[in-house]
């Protein structure tokens, strides 16, 4: 079966970290917004295995505010463990405040404590040739899951995702005990995503929210919560 590369266009991704409102309250605010956001798709669990260098270069570039930075992950939907269907290997590219991702379909696999997560990416390097990433220098460092809802504005120009029930599990490249985990059950991450052409409209949308844009990276949060002993 031929593998198909997909590449999104650069877009803004405004993030809002919300810990003072309930999920129901946030949903109500979105649905009552003047831009008339309607829920699309079905709510589902999003799962990721993040890869980084031994020195956590991608993590450090993020917290240091590097303008150009990357994240590499394997993503799938549904159950966290067991038979994983339709996974994709993704490079998330950030240039300043703009971001996009490049992805390719991967073969299905089975995820448990015995799964060789290092081989999972190295065995598929030949499918994903990129000058952006030295895949041979990458190692699995974090497994995470969250519940996601999807919304779109009436003019189809703006999308919103709402994430909660965040779970982070650290990974050691040769021993996947999946025992050291951290869960955030009382916080919500809302993202507003749109093409740069709609920046003026986006400002109006943001002003109608009772919360403000904040820097929030699930990858950074997961690393800091599950790898405290090696970071500080």
Write a brief caption for the model.
By secondary structure, this protein is an alpha+beta fold.
Characterise the protein shown here.
It is a single chain. With about 230 residues, this protein is an alpha+beta fold. It has six helices and twelve strands. Strands 2-7-6-4-3-9-10-12 form an eight-stranded antiparallel β-barrel. The chain has a two-stranded antiparallel ribbon with strand order 5-8. The protein starts with a strand and ends with a helix. The model has no long low-confidence stretch (mean pLDDT about 90).
Outline the fold blueprint.
Layout: E1 5-7, E2 11-18, H1 23-31, E3 38-52, H2 57-63, E4 68-77, E5 82-84, E6 88-95, E7 98-105, E8 109-111, H3 117-122, E9 139-152, E10 158-170, E11 181-184, E12 188-194, H4 199-207, H5 218-226, H6 228-231
Antiparallel strand pairs: 1-7, 2-7, 2-12, 3-4, 3-9, 4-6, 5-8, 6-7, 9-10, 10-11, 10-12
Give a quick set of tags describing it.
alpha+beta; 8-stranded antiparallel β-barrel; 19% helix; two-stranded antiparallel sheet; 232 residues
